[in-house]
Amino acid sequence: MNQNIEIEFKNILTKNEYEQLLKFFKVNTNQIFKQENHYFDTPNFSLKSKETALRIRKKGLNYEMTLKQPAAVGLLETNQTISEDEAQLAIRFGKLPTGIIQRLIEEIEIPFSTLEYFGSLITERVEFEYQKGLLVLDHSIYLDTEDYELEYEVENYQNGEKTFNELLKQFKIPARLTENKIRRFYYRRYQQTNGK
Fold it and tell me: Is 80 exceeded by the pLDDT of residue 195?
């Protein structure tokens, strides 16, 4: 188990803006890798209502369960390495592995047994160092939706915000209010569930 504070800036992109950035940063297709995220919540979105999210991510041959919770700045991420068998039990049958994440969820008064599998989001990602941070270009596909996104992960909020805004300005990309992937996924799932 490990915990860290995630500070990142993000902006939804059009397909053209995404392709322009790939071209500018000379991204080869072999630099792009695939990540698969599987999301969980209760039927009435109890985690979402507490600004919290739970996912299992497959990265290469490994699986990691991550709980994201609000922090004073950014998000507190708690990561728990799990086996492929544990991941498959969670995805296929909604049986999540026990451990630190279970304890944290129960601390916010959500019964762990009420969590269920919501679906998956597949991201084609490229990431590279950029001005003391990590610049990420994502193409995500989930439910019946696809989107493009620019992310910038940093250690220092003020410096990161300045660099990110300068980058948007350089490429004439408007700053757009951008929810994180989990929220976008939940919003789309909520629309589908409620027939909108």
Answer: no
As a whole number of angstroms, the distance between CA 88 and CA 127 comes to 27
Which sign does the torsion angle of CA 137, 182, 161, 76 carry?
negative
Distance CA(68)–CA(59), nearest Å, equals 18
Residue 75 confidence (pLDDT):
87
What is the radius of gyration, based on Cα positions, of the chain? 17
Report the 10 Å Cβ neighbour count for 148.
Answer: 20
**C-beta of residue 179 within 8 angstroms of C-beta of residue 187:** yes
**Tally of domains in the chain:** 1
- Find the helix or strand (DSSP H, E) in which 91 lies: helix 84-93
Split at pLDDT 50, 70, 90, the class of 1 is low
The structure's pTM equals 0.86
pLDDT of 172 > 70? The answer is yes
What CATH number has the domain bearing residue 28?
Answer: 2.40.320.10
CB 38 within 8 A of CB 92: no
Q: Can you give the residue range of the structural domain that contains 176?
A: 2-193
CA-to-CA distance for 70 and 63, rounded, in angstroms?
23
